Each structure stands twice: as C-alpha cells, then as structure tokens.
Amino acid sequence: MAGRLKIRVENVSKIFGGNPTAALAKVRAGMGKAELLETSNHVLGLHEINLDIREGETFVIMGLSGSGKSTLIRHFNRLIEPTAGRILVDGEDVLALNPAALRRFCRRKVSMVFQRFALLPHKTVLENVIYGLIMDGVPKPAARDRGMQQIELVGLAGFENHHPGQLSGGMQQRVGLARALATDAEILLMDEAFSALDPLIRHDMQMQLRDIQARLHKTIVFITHDLDEALLLGNHIAILKDGMVRQVGTGASILMAPADDYVARFVRDVNRARIVTCGALAEPGQVFANPQAASGASGWVIISDGCGGHGLMRAGTGARNGEAKLEDAITIEASANVEEAFGALARRDRPLVVMTDGRVSGLLGWQTVLKALERNDGTIGGPRC
Hints:
single chain, CBS-domain, 2 domains
C-alpha cells in the first residue's frame, strides 16, 4: 500500500528551442503548441505539470506519441533540465543538486530501465547487472552476491554467464530490470520498458513486475502509451496530451468519471468490468444484530450473527412480529473486479454483501453494476464479445 509523499512535481514546464524562457511566456499567455512551433520554432514539451507520487506505489504516466511522457520522466533524474518548476524527492529539490550530489542521487536513490535495454554486449549478464555497483565502489564479491540475488529474482538463474546476444528480447529486458534493482534504489524509472517486446513476452514481464513490486514495494514511475498496460500496473495514472496533464486518478476513477472528451475517447473501449472493483461500487449497507433491530430501516439490510456470518433481509418484512425471512448472504471481496462478481450476481433477487478484511463494506446489486459499466454513449463497457 502506498505511503507518504515521495515525489512532488511542481509546475514543471519544458520548452525546446533557442530561447525557452521567452517561448514559455508566450505559452503562459495562451499560445498553443502548434502556434508556438509555427511562429517561433520552439517545441512545447511540458506545461505546468503537477503530480504527487507516494512511496511504494506504481505511478503510470501515459499518453500518445508526442504527449510529453518520456520528456517528463527524464526530468526525475535530470537527463533533461526543465525550463521552469521544481521536482522534490523526499522534500529535496532535485533541480538544486550540485553535480556531485546529483551523481550520488542517480547512483543510489533512483534507477532507470530503458525501452531498448541499453546492455553492454561484450559483458555477461552478471557483469551487466553489477556494472553500476562496481562503478560505485562496491567490492566485487559483494557486488556479485547482490547481482545474483537480482538475477534469481527476475528468473534468469543459470544465464548469468551468457552474453546479451545469446538471450531473447524478454530475457534482455529482465537483465535491465535486474541491473536497476541491484542498486537497491528507492525509485525505479521505467520508460516504455516493455513496449519493444512481443505481446506474450510483454504480458509475462508485466506480471513479473507486479510480483516483484508486491515483494519489494519500490516507488515505480512507469511510462507507457498502452492503456491496458497502465490499468494493469498503475495504482494511479496520469494521462498527458500535448505536454499537459488531462487527468490523474486510479484506473477505476478515470474510467468511471473521465475529466473531458479526450479522456472519455481514450478509455471508451476498455473492458470496465475487469478494472472496476466491487469495493468501488459498493453502496452503504446497514448491519443489525437481529431482525427486530432493523424494524425502522428501509431497503435491504444485513443481519449479523456475531460470528462472522451474515444474512440479508428486506426491511419491514415481518420484523416486528418475528416473522422476518432471512435470505442467504452471498459475499464477495471488495478487491474483486466486477467481472469476477458476475457469477455471484446471477441471483438477481438479492444484492451481494461486499467485504473488506472481514468487515462489511456495503451492498452491490445488478443495477449499480450496469450503471457503472455504461459508457457515455449508452453502450455497456463490459467484456468484449
């Protein structure tokens, strides 16, 4: 679970060209990206980006080609310097670091995984993984031990003495991931890390990253142009267009309430049933110790037996004279997605009881699910047929 604030991006703007300060003033006065390029031969990369990234979360920055996402991630370790703004990591302004402090920051606090692997072809897998450690002065035996731990973590044990040219694309990307993890950096920057891989290998890498993140709880900033990948990996997602943030939120919140027409079109064809959780849709449900206690309530109520079991009752159905009829309660975890609930929702005569850590979160019925899956055009964004 994400913790305290780790990274804060404050009003970061980037203009490419000979006089970026003057060009930025024009953008702030209302000039758009196309007009700026036409009139001054400057390119608007980013404009007043503000983001909060919490410790231990996977934060996805996504957008189409030219949206500014790769430009933005390169500001985190100052591969690109901004025209304006600040980037704070643990409260420290990265942009204010002198060269020596920046080198320490890049060696120990942040690691990067590139799209095209960036491996040294003449070195073995193990030598690639520990290269940064050796450059940082770690004794070779200790570096080898740490490198082998990461090689095993990414599933490449037995390949440590192979060279990159002897490996598949997916295996080479695992080497890049192991190299980034070997430094034990708190922040992992991943710039289109899986986009060059075949679909099946790409999915394997996505699932492996999720598994590694569940164990290590790194702060990951992940860049992608693929919405399905963003929804699969991201705790929070920022959608960029033309260098500006259009919306930030969880995958479910963006699907349920797109900020504008651009975002709505972007997410239109997503299978919402696989993204939206039962907990996100649960409506408040009243819990009573017995039917008599629910005599003044309305709608469906939950009756607890005090031992973790629950029943359902329509309030007012004979509770006062002891003739109340309890229905069996079907429970589902709040973390389950809506698609996983379809079977349980087949009994449309009663709602599901949604549970979180053994406690009742609320009730979920078919009408709520159908409303949640309905797109802006009135069609249903459920499973593709």
